[in-house]
Design a protein that fits this description.
- This protein is α+β, with helices and mostly antiparallel strands.
- A four-stranded antiparallel β-sheet has the order 2-3-1-4, with helices on one face.
- A hairpin with a 2-residue loop joins β2 and β3.
- The longest helix is centred in the middle third of the chain and has 15 residues.
- The chain is globular.
- The C terminus is likely disordered.
């Protein structure tokens, strides 16, 4: 699983990127997404970001990907604690 967060300044590019990411995962907050899938799907997402989006970024744009492994722990507070699901680690 990965947690992906982004800051993209240009509206059109941000909307396009958001729609792209939603096809692979779910939105946790406005610019924070969770993607649970196979290793291959996670590789596809990273390649698409590199080849399709990164070249269009401005100086202030960024994407951060956090790879969640068996050693990581997720703490949930507020509404997020009601969305807790079984976490499968591969």
């Amino acid at each position: 699983m990965i947690i992906l967060t982004y800051d993209i300044q240009e509206d059109h590019l941000r909307t396009e990127f958001s729609k792209f990411i939603l096809s692979y995962g779910r939105r946790l907050q406005y610019s924070v997404y969770e993607i649970k899938n196979s290793k291959r799907i996670l590789e596809i997402v990273q390649e698409e970001i590199k080849n399709r989006f990164e070249k269009r970024f401005n100086q202030g744009d960024s994407i951060l990907i956090f790879k969640i492994t068996a050693e990581n722990q997720i703490l949930r507070f507020g509404y997020a604690k009601n969305e807790e699901t079984d976490l499968l680690m591969y």
